[in-house]
């Protein structure tokens, strides 16, 4: 065979290889990020909700850097109850404090507490549920007796007592106090699903092959219940925003002088504020409603994407 024929054959082989590689790429399963993006594109409401969450959190975190909290919370009676779009864009409260600045600082504190509480409580609850559900038997009995003891405690009253006893605390301290109690629902949910998963064939096969317990729990079982974990975490995040808001509304949240969405909504305790000075509480209430609904929509999309990714991996 001549040199020209060899060169032509080589070029044909390279073209065939490139064609086959392109076909393989097209037939390959899409990545997890691609699946998530496709789900968001298919659900415009959820995509809008995700944009709202991201833009709002970025705006709050950046804007709070330019606000001096002590100055923003200082009292100025001369500006008391200024209406929105007068001297101040969102008006002022009884103490003449800017509602816009309070809203930014309060959102930062409330969202920060909710994120910290979700990370700590969900992590502990997931690990607790996985270990309890996987081992079962005496390990499960001991762990569930501890769970039952925690469930018997009047959580809200206990938190109020602890907050009242502590002489001084901040957002980090409050987050740690709440984290002691708000892992229970996650633990129960994950335990029930883990008990079901641990009876399946792939877990038995892993045990037979000598796979370590740690790998079975966290590399095999946990990915298979990832959709449940994602949904529970997103719902917990939305709920945890309400937890801080409720405590602050009752007067047992963040210390006086520390703005939060709950302290702003507590202005509605005054009948005059409900009817005449609505801007001191209504804007914060609307913000919480929009955030919680948006988080719920995003959680549903991520759950669907996780289910789709798991089905493709099984295939």
Descriptive notes:
The protein is mostly helical. The chain has a single domain (34-73, 87-314), classed as MetI-like fold, CATH 1.10.3720. It has helices at 3-27, 32-42, 44-64, 69-72, 99-135, 137-152, 155-165, 171-179, 184-197, 201-208, 213-224, 226-250, 261-265, 271-275, 282-314. α2 (32-42) crosses α15 (282-314). The longest helix has 37 residues, at 99-135. The model is unreliable at 5-9 and 20-29 (pLDDT under 50).
The CATH C-level name is Mainly Alpha
Kindly name the structural category: mainly alpha
Gyration radius (Cα, Å) is 27 Å
- Helical amount among residues, as a percent range? over 70%
Give the ordered list of helices and strands.
HHHHHHHHHHHHHHH
Whole-number count of domains:
1
- Going by CATH, the homologous superfamily would be MetI-like
CATH topology: MetI-like fold
Number of beta strands: 0
Stretches where pLDDT is under 50 for at least 5 consecutive residues are 5-9, 20-29
- Number of separate helices: 15
**Mean of residue pLDDT values:** 80
Q: What is the first-to-last residue Cα distance?
A: 46 Å
Which geometry do the CA atoms define? globular
Domain ABC transmembrane type-1: 107-299
Organism: Furfurilactobacillus milii
Family: Belongs to the binding-protein-dependent transport system permease family.
Membrane topology: Multi-pass membrane protein
């Amino acid at each position: 065979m001549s040199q020209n024929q060899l060169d032509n054959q080589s070029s044909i082989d390279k073209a065939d290889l490139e064609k086959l590689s392109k076909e393989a790429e097209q037939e390959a399963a899409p990545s997890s990020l691609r699946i998530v993006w496709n789900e968001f594109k298919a659900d415009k409401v959820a995509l809008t909700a995700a944009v709202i969450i991201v833009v709002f959190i970025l705006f709050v975190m950046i804007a709070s850097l330019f606000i001096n909290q002590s100055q923003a919370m200082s009292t100025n009676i001369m500006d008391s109850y200024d209406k929105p779009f007068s001297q101040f864009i969102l008006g002022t409260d009884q103490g003449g404090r800017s509602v816009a600045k309070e809203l930014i600082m309060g959102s930062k504190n409330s969202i920060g507490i909710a994120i910290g509480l979700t990370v700590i409580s969900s992590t502990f609850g997931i690990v607790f549920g996985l270990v309890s559900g996987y081992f079962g038997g005496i390990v499960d009995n001991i762990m569930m007796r501890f769970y039952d003891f925690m469930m018997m405690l009047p959580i809200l009253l206990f938190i109020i007592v602890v907050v009242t006893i502590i002489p001084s605390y901040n957002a980090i301290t409050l987050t740690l106090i709440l984290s002691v109690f708000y892992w229970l629902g996650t633990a129960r949910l994950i335990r029930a699903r883990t008990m079901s998963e641990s009876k399946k064939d792939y877990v038995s096969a892993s045990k037979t092959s000598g796979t370590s317990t740690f790998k079975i729990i966290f590399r095999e079982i946990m990915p298979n219940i990832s959709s449940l974990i994602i949904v529970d975490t997103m719902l917990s995040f939305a709920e945890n925003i309400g937890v801080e808001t409720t405590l602050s509304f009752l007067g047992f949240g963040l210390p006086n002088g520390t703005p939060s969405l709950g302290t702003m909504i507590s202005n509605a305790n005054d009948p005059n504020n409900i009817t005449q000075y609505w801007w001191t509480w209504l804007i914060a209430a609307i913000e919480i409603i929009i955030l919680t609904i948006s988080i719920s929509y995003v959680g549903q999309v991520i759950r669907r994407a996780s289910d789709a990714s798991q089905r493709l991996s099984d295939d």
